[in-house]
Structures are given as structure tokens and as C-alpha cells.
Amino acid sequence: MTPWEHTRRGFDTQLSALLDSIPLPDHGRALDIGCGTGKHSIDMAKRGWQVTGVDIEQEALDKARIRARDAHSTVRFLHEDATDLHIAVDPGHMLVLDIGCFHGLDDQERRHYAESVNAITAPGASLIMFAFSRGHRWPIPHGVSKADVARAFDGWTMVSSDPADMSDAPLPARAAHPCWYHLVRR
Is 171 helix (H, G, I), strand (E, B) or coil? Predict the structure, then answer.
């Protein structure tokens, strides 16, 4: 399990506030990239979004499907690579959530990821990203800076960049200086 699946108070409060700040359009479609076991996909579906969760780990997707069924929630889960979404994911998404995927990619993968996100989102779409800051920590991913995120998502406006509250997470996760980014596509 990832560190953000163990958190409760601050992390969940911050994510909830970010999701609440995004207007839900009629038939609003959301994409959870790197959805893991589906916790956040299910939360978005309960808020009224039509959610697709994607992950490259089949075992996590199997758990996500069980979790969604047990929660009586309808979420579509796909076994896909975050750097090549446009083939399996329809365009027109108004919300993209990335909790812990982008910050683990290398520069080339990040370019492909951003191109994929651009291909499946509509103007005015929001991207909410949780990422660790730069550093060389094992097993924590190398991370990203605010400038890295802004550079990767040309054509998007950075609405906010705030430290993530992971006070109840393991020390390595807290020491990685996690951050929330909210971008809106122009």
C-alpha cells in the first residue's frame, strides 16, 4: 500500500477541498491516473463524476474492482500506461487526478504523459496532482518541482501549489516534502 492510502486527516481534507473547488459539469468525466486500489476513484464517483481509473498494475486494478463493487460504486478501471492514454481513454475529461504517478516518471515519460493528458482533456479541465518534491531518496520517487510540473503542462495554468499535509504518514513520505498542484487547461 502507498503512503497516501494510510493517511487520514490532513491529506484527505486537502484532497476533498481541491475536489470541492471544481464545478461538476453535467455528465462530468474524471480520470484517476495511477488509481491503484481505487480509493480516490470511488470518492470521485460518489461525488457524481463518471470515473475511469487507470493503472499499469493489474493486481491493484483487481483490488480496485472489488473495492468499487463493495462500495456499490460504478467506476471503469483500465489496465493502461499513463504515458499512452489517448488510445483507450476518450477525450473530453474535465478532471484528472494523479496521486503519485507523475513524480515517478523520467523526463521522456513525463512529456508523453502530458501529451496524453492533453489528448483526453477539454479546455477548462482541472488537473489535481499530488507529488513528492525533488530529491534522491529510495524507495521514494525522485520527485518534481513546481517548475517541472509547469514546464510539462504547457497550455495549463497553475492555480495553486500547496504543501501536502501528511503528518500521519511514515517519516520517509513526510521528508519528501509532498505537494498538491492544481492546474487548469487553457
Answer: helix
User: How many alpha carbons fall within 13 Å on the CB side of residue 172?
Assistant: 11
3-state helix, strand, coil in the chain (%, to 5): 35, 25, 35
Of the candidates 114, 106, 55, the one whose C-alpha atom is nearest the C-alpha of residue 86 is 114
pTM check: above 0.70: yes
**Is 158 in contact with 146 (CB distance < 8 Å)?**
yes
Q: Which of 61, 127, 120 is nearest to 85 (CA)?
A: 120
Q: What is the chain's pLDDT, residue by residue, as a tens digit (186 residues)?
A: 555 555 567 899 999 999 999 999 998 999 999 999 999 999 999 999 999 999 999 999 999 999 999 999 999 999 999 999 988 899 999 999 999 999 999 999 999 999 999 999 999 999 999 999 987 656 666 799 999 999 999 999 999 999 999 888 888 778 888 999 999 999
